[in-house]
Design brief:
globular, seven-stranded antiparallel β-sheet, 13 strands, 3 helices, 33% strand, six-stranded mixed β-sheet, 20% helix, alpha+beta
C-alpha cells in the first residue's frame, strides 16, 4: 500500500478526526443533576432506563428524598407498588448525610437505593427505554447541609447497551464523557491548523 502524499496527510488527519468526533455517542441513561440555586438545592432528572440486565426485586412504596451516606436518592411523585430492580454496580454513597426530604417533588418517580441490597426504582408500569422526567427542591439548603459530596457518580449494568446507566451529578450541569470529545476536537483543530498552513504555503504568489 502506497503512503499518502505529504500534501494530503493533514487533510486526511483532519477528516478522520472530524468523522470520529461526530461518531462519538452521547452519554445515555438517566441523569439526576443537583445544583445550588440561590438558597435552595434543586434537582432535575431526565433520560431513559434500559431494564435489560436488571432483575425485578419486588414492589415498594418509597418516598422522595436523599441519604448521602447510604447512596439513596429518590425523586418524583411518591407512589405505592413502585417496582425495584437490582443487578447494577457503582458507588455505595455520595456523601455522609442522613435522610433529608424535599419541600417539593414532582414528575416520574425514579430513584436509586444502594442499601441494603440495592434497587433502581422506576414508575409503575414503566416501559423499558422510554423517556422519564422529574424534579425536586430542598429549600434553604446547601450540599453541605444535606451531607452531599459534589461530584459525578455513575451506576451501570448489562452489557453496555444504550441507557444502561444511572448518573448523579452533584454541583454540575452536564455529564462528562471522559475527555474523548475534547481530545478529538483538539486533534481536529490541530489538523485544520496544519491544513491551513499547507494551503498557505501552496498558494501562488500574485
Amino acid at each position: 500500500m502506497k503512503a499518502l502524499p505529504k500534501k494530503l496527510l493533514p487533510l486526511t488527519l483532519f477528516a478522520i478526526a472530524v468523522t470520529s468526533l461526530f461518531s462519538v455517542q452521547p452519554a445515555q441513561g438517566f441523569t439526576m443533576t443537583l445544583q445550588q440555586v440561590g438558597s435552595n438545592v434543586v434537582a432535575n432528572g431526565s433520560g431513559a432506563i434500559n431494564l435489560t440486565g436488571l432483575t425485578l426485586d419486588d414492589l415498594f412504596s418509597p418516598v422522595a428524598g436523599v441519604v448521602g451516606s447510604s447512596g439513596i436518592i429518590n425523586m418524583g411523585q411518591s407512589a405505592v407498588n413502585v417496582p425495584g430492580y437490582f443487578g447494577f454496580t457503582g458507588p455505595s454513597n455520595f456523601g455522609g448525610g442522613g435522610l433529608f426530604s424535599p419541600n417539593t417533588s414532582s414528575g416520574d418517580f425514579v430513584g436509586i437505593n444502594n442499601s441494603p441490597l440495592g434497587d433502581i426504582f422506576v414508575p409503575q408500569g414503566y416501559v423499558s427505554d422510554t423517556a422519564l422526567s422529574d424534579s425536586m427542591t430542598f429549600n434553604s439548603a446547601t450540599f453541605a447541609s444535606l451531607g452531599l459530596t459534589p461530584g459525578t457518580y455513575t451506576w451501570s449494568w448489562g452489557t453496555g447497551l444504550r441507557n444502561q446507566n444511572f448518573t448523579l451529578i452533584i454541583g454540575g450541569a452536564g455529564v462528562p464523557d471522559g475527555g474523548s470529545t475534547v481530545f478529538l476536537l483538539g486533534f481536529g483543530l490541530l489538523g485544520l491548523a496544519a491544513l491551513r498552513r499547507k494551503l498557505k504555503l501552496l498558494k501562488p504568489i500574485s
